[in-house]
Design goal:
With 174 residues, the protein is α+β, with helices and mostly antiparallel strands. The protein is built from 6 helices and 6 strands; from the N terminus they run αααββαααββββ.
Length: 174
């Protein structure tokens, strides 16, 4: 249960920049404050929940030994995030906005997030100068996302990690 809750918080917090972008867009186009205030509060709530969850995981999740066979950088995603999420969102026409349709899509995405074994880097961690690496373990499992403050150049430099949830690891050494 806690694993799914952490996964949900992690993925919802990735939408915080979208909430802030939408708030700015709404204010520019509509000149009203109620919807932007709600969006800013929602984005801030997601970000604060994530900050607490991530801090808790860093301090309380037990480290595990891992033998990494391959490590590759995954920091390039931030460019794709900006181009594929923020730019189209920022150019959206508010007059064409359908809240019910967006709500249905959001519920479907949340349901998918809970059952998918896929992890994307979180933009809030990028802002805190974390790096992201995709690693493969000696047991044959690949596709782990490692969150790390250090610059990694060798798979042997990773020996212990903390597993936040399925396929999301935090480097416990740096």
């Amino acid at each position: 249960m806690a694993n799914n809750l952490q996964k949900l918080i992690y993925n919802l917090s990735a939408a915080s920049p979208l909430c802030f972008t939408f708030a700015i867009l709404w204010y520019i186009q509509k000149q009203t404050l109620i919807v932007p205030a709600i969006c800013v509060c929602l984005g801030s709530f997601f970000a604060l929940c994530f900050a607490r969850s991530f801090s808790y995981a860093k301090k309380h999740v037990a480290p595990i030994m891992i033998r990494v066979t391959d490590v590759s950088p995954k920091d390039g995603w931030i460019v794709a995030y900006g181009i594929s999420y923020l730019l189209p969102f920022a150019s959206m026409a508010i007059d064409d906005f359908d809240a019910i349709l967006c709500g249905i899509i959001a519920i479907l995405l949340i349901a998918i997030i809970l059952f998918a074994n896929s992890v994307t880097p979180n933009p809030l961690l990028f802002l805190q100068k974390y790096h992201f690496y995709e690693i493969s373990a000696e047991n044959g499992v690949s596709g782990y996302l490692l969150i790390c403050k250090r610059d990694l150049r060798n798979a042997k430099h990773i020996t212990t990690v903390k597993r936040v949830f399925e396929f999301l690891l935090i480097d416990s050494e740096g």
